[in-house]
Hints:
The protein is α+β, with helices and mostly antiparallel strands.
Amino acid sequence: MYSSRISSTVRIRPGGQALVVTNVQGEIGEDVTVLVEWLVDLGASVRVARFLCTVQEKKVIVEVCNPSTEEMVIKKGTPLAAISVVPESAFSASAASSPVDGAEPFSPEENASSKRESDWIHAAIAASPTAENASSESMPELDKVLETELKVDFSDSKLGSEQKELFSGLLNSFRDLFEETSLKPGRTDLLEFTIDTGNSAPIKQRPYRVSKAEGDVMKSEIEQYLDLNLIRAS
């Protein structure tokens, strides 16, 4: 695995994004395809988009994001991204994707294009490392809910069977980013922050009266969040 350093100083507004040129460190081939990812050493202050890119003159394009509420300056020479070479075998041709049942057979050009897209997804998933700092907290109940809810409805889709399987696998690999129900929200470590409330409670609100129907709904929601350990009694 390689790393890359930004080639010039750049200023990014709060919540903004920018495409920057970076220099790959170490000896790397020309015109090779690489997977660009966030560098763990950066911390939570800078985010880097994960995508495939071609190396040109030991340079790669990196998309960075400033998730903070303050302007950010990234100085020239700052390590910015982790670079992994994608092997050529990931793009080699194999069995073409089968057409949708009842549809016209794919032409050779369409089959080749479909195969390249499938291999691209395979390469991106296979090359992405498992997060070292992933939460160790076990959430089997949430996993069961997500597995059920992330089943994709392909009834009106023109994708082939292999493409459907690849697409479902890609969604499941990022399933911690999806919130399908307010009762059991997913969790992600892409953005972390804390709010210092000192000795004060995080929420201060004067009590007010509601109807019995509204009260029953509120009580039911609170009890479910308590059961999920998302909140605690004050």
